[in-house]
Design goal:
Largest sheet: 3 strands, mixed
Strand content: 5-15%
Order of helices and strands: HHEEEHH
Distance between the termini: 23 Å
Strand order of the largest sheet: 1-3-2
């Protein structure tokens, strides 16, 4: 299992919470919230300019949006380099894994004494 908390990007984000957007921009990742309806918590897509966009559902509370961010970041870090195209509408093995990784990341961060990371 890919441990997102061991990735250099995750460690930079946690160490520099006041520079999250700058760090993500340097890695060609952008975040935003949008009305995605009741059935979609979030998604990630890659633009023609090779930027990844993590989109969280604006209906979710802040903590849920943080979880979605980590879930989608997992897809970018663990899968996107190997897969040119990711589209899933079901609970595939990869979706379950992304949830587990996000849960581990949140738990590890909270044990470090942090509050919900601002991303």
């Amino acid at each position: 299992m890919f441990d997102i908390t061991q990735s250099k990007l995750y460690q930079k984000l946690i160490a520099n919470p006041d520079m999250v957007q700058e760090i993500l921009d340097a890695h060609k990742i952008r975040t935003q919230v949008a009305p995605l309806g009741r059935d979609i918590a979030g998604m990630v897509y890659r633009s023609r300019q090779e930027f990844y966009y993590i989109v969280g559902n604006w209906m979710l509370d802040f903590d849920a949006q943080q979880f979605v961010f980590l879930h989608e970041l997992y897809h970018i870090l663990a899968e996107a380099p190997k897969e040119p195209y990711l589209l899933r509408m079901d609970w595939s093995r990869e979706e379950v894994m992304a949830d587990r990784v996000a849960e581990v990341a949140v738990t590890k961060y909270m044990k470090m004494g942090g509050s919900s990371p601002e991303v």
